[in-house]
Amino acid sequence: MGWALGQCLVWLLIAAQCVCVWGQQVEVIVGDRVVNTGTGWNSTLAVATVGPIHSVEWTDPAGNNILNRIQDTLFIKPGTAYSGRVALLTNGSLAISSTRRSDQGTYTVKVDPLASTALTSNSVTLSLMVHDPVEGVSVSVSMAGVREGMDSLTLRCSLLSGSGFTYTWLKSGSALVNSSRLTVTPTLVSISPVDRTDAGNYTCRVSNPVSAGQDTQAVIVYYGPESLTIARVTPSDCVTSDQVAIGQPVRLTCGAVSVPPATYTWTLRGRALVQGTTVTIPLLMANGSGSYTCRAVNGQTGVERNVTTLVTAVGETGERGRGKAT
Fold first, then answer.
1. pTM for this one?
2. What per-residue string of b and e applies to 160-177 under the rule 16 or more CB within 10 Å gives b?
3. For the chain, N or C: smaller number of CB within 10 Å?
4. What pLDDT, on the 0 to 100 scale, is given for residue 13?
5. What angle do CA 178, 195, 228 make, to 5 degrees?
């Protein structure tokens, strides 16, 4: 009785091992489960079979046979949309040339091992995603130059072709986000009112899993003039900062914060002197005393600002000198 029970256990163990071996599937190594490709491109649904193989069969997303290889003989089904565009690689991968949008979908490969391997067949699926490559991205702007606090600005992004794409807006390399003045949508950026900090390069980047394109537009924001100053270059041996000894040189330079740069005009007691940032008096005479006014004008904003400095001509004794102004 004990011998019979022992024999039974041995056969049960052998049977269990046999079930395990005969139930094991042939190994199929898969590259990418989802393959992204572009229309007109060559695509590969990559797999690798392991061990002796009896047959490999590929079916399309509708479940129809594309091709199969039995031992060393390849059969490609004629009269299908894949005719003349498919090939079976030695490792079992399916190659599709001149990929079409209609090729998109889930493909199945079934691998049958040789009977001698005691393995069972295995089927795996791979998805092919076909995209139209992004081409012809361009950015248009309502006005390339805008006035701070007075104008609004709209940038529009468009493209000639592409599918499954997303938009990204950048300003000088940083992503744009919505704010109280800034509205960002996939195809539009709107700014109202415009601030000087809005100046810079705006880029629209359009991308999908297989391609990308971008275009950039520069935006100039006009502002000023503001913060007018007059820099004086005079001898430093006078009693007060406005005093200059007769016969000494004087150079006055006007500056302002302005985009574009302001134009400058100098006057002395209402009389026009010169145009430009600097007025130079080689030898100061008595009649050179007075209030020197710099007028700065921004031709784009139309804003005008004035700043004045006093120059007092004095003699060696500190008295005002006399003479004809130059």
1. 0.77
2. eebeebebbbbbeeeebe
3. N
4. 32
5. 160
- Rounded-to-integer distance, Cα 94 and Cα 74, Å: 12
Q: How far apart are CA 105 and CA 161, in angstroms?
A: 21
CA angle 218–220–160, rounded 5-degree value: 30
Nearest CA among 152, 31, 165 for reference residue 91? 31
What pLDDT does residue 238 have? Answer: 60
Residue ranges in 48-200 assigned as alpha helix (H): none
Distance CA 100, CA 41 (A): 8
Instruction: Give the separation between CA 314 and CA 322, rounded to whole angstroms.
Output: 9
3-state secondary structure (DSSP) of residue 239: coil
Contact status, residue 188 vs residue 172, Cβ threshold 8 Å: no
Place of tokens 């003045």: 181
DSSP state of 294: E
pLDDT value at residue 326? 32
8 A C-beta contact, residue 201 and residue 220? no
Average pLDDT by stretches of 10, the chain with 326 residues: 36 34 82 96 96 96 96 93 95 97 98 94 98 97 94 97 96 94 97 96 97 97 97 75 88 97 95 95 91 97 96 66 32
